[in-house]
TrEMBL record, chains A, B:
Listed Pfam families: TetR_C_16 (PF17920), TetR_N (PF00440)
Alphabetized GO MF terms: DNA-binding transcription factor activity; transcription cis-regulatory region binding
Keywords attached to this entry: DNA-binding, Transcription, Transcription regulation
Protein name: TetR family transcriptional regulator
Domain HTH tetR-type, chain residue ranges per copy: 28-88
Ranges where the record places region Disordered: 1-27
Organism in which the protein naturally occurs: Winogradskya consettensis
DNA-binding region extent: 51-70
Length: 212, 212
DNA sequence: CGCATAAGTCAGCGGGTGTTTACTAGTAGT
DNA sequence: ACTACTAGTAAACACCCGCTGACTTATGCG
């Protein structure tokens, strides 16, 4: 469905490498490339839609290498998810409340991100049906929301965690809208554009002193 | 043709129909049932994951009826989406600003919803890859956010629409978290639990008079 | 060099998917 | 009661997917 260039395909399959030059034998490198390509495709198009042939072609390697390095498509997905989880976890270490909004804006729309963090957040919303993967993404979402709740620390009633999860939902919803839907003007908003609204949002939901 | 005289009657492969009784001949009814089941499955598990046989079995009818009534799986998806779009559009008619939050809370977590609105919102986030469907969901999201922006009508700078879209993103993010992820305590929050936080959220993002 | 081993390729297999075609069986009109 | 028509069924087809086992080629080491 998605990719047009399916048929025809002469004997040399869709290799990204130049036909004359051979792919250098670097297992580590191709493994990493497979992971990167797969993360992008899984995050953007979902698990079931993405085929292993798409990934392999995009990475310029043979399909069999996926099974070799990650045992299966699900294994590859779990590897992507694991990487995303560690990356996301590290990035959400200990942010004080008054900087959460700015940090969110930066993560969502920061210019020229090399860590591809929005992609990784998006991946947390994708499901492969596998239980282990399910546990991982639920775990990291729980961790993040708990950290945010403790950073906020307002609301002596039990609603702090709930409110933090709402903020998290908002952030992920925004990423989804930008990355998968392309709803303008949200999709084209810069980090500066998002800073003020997000500050209002975080403040209203997590600040100690509220009106209502 | 002396082929296998006994139809044997494999007694209702699905489960919706009682083995003994035959499905009554009601095209309208089965069509509606297919649509309802498909909407639920598409919204919950996504387009690619859901198989037409799952849908048919769940509705208690034969698979071929999907092609008959909706020409194809994509046609069925578009029909579900169209229904969801009209339902969502009607439900977001003209809500004054001060009631948006309550309305959202009711739509997200209202008790015993017969219109299955959360499901329909969730469907708006699912993609089949078809361009026509893509246009539909983008259109309805645009409409809703514009209505919300005009209801708010604050922010003489051009950020009203952006802020409305952030509110919408938050709502959809929450629905996604509840319906697809099951993140507690958000997933189990009642309408009352959500009312106050959502009021804060809407107020902070859309109210005319803000501090910062 | 010669060879063992790892990196990468190729072609094909089961299995599941969406769709179609031929068929059965209720139902309404005359 | 006969017939035309439509709702519903069953089985198969063609295709694409994930995966595998045998093969080829480059690199490291004596």
């Amino acid at each position: 469905m998605g990719t047009a260039p399916g048929p025809v395909m002469p004997v040399a399959p869709g290799r990204a490498t130049i036909p004359g030059t051979r792919r250098p034998r670097d297992a580590e490198r191709t493994r990493a490339q497979l992971l990167a390509v797969a993360t992008g495709r899984f995050a953007r198009n979902g698990y079931a839609t993405t085929t292993v042939r798409d990934i392999a072609d995009d990475a310029g390697v043979n399909v069999a290498l996926i099974s070799r390095y990650f045992t299966s498509k699900e294994g590859l997905f779990e590897a992507c998810l694991a990487e995303a989880v560690t990356e996301v976890r590290r990035d959400s270490d200990d942010t004080p409340l008054d900087r959460i909004a700015a940090a969110l804006a930066h993560k969502i729309a920061g210019p020229d991100r090399e860590d591809r963090l929005p992609e990784r957040f998006l991946l947390l919303l994708r499901s492969s049906g596998d239980q282990h993967a399910e546990d991982m993404r639920l775990g990291v979402l729980r961790t993040i929301s708990e950290r945010m709740a403790s950073a906020a620390a307002g609301h002596d009633d039990g609603s702090a965690l709930l409110r933090a999860q709402i903020v998290l939902s908002a952030a992920l919803g925004i990423i989804l809208m930008r990355g998968s839907l392309g709803l303008q003007p949200l999709a084209g908003a810069t980090e500066q554009d998002l800073a003020a609204p997000l500050a209002d949002l975080v403040n209203a939901l997590c600040a100690k002193d509220r009106t209502s």
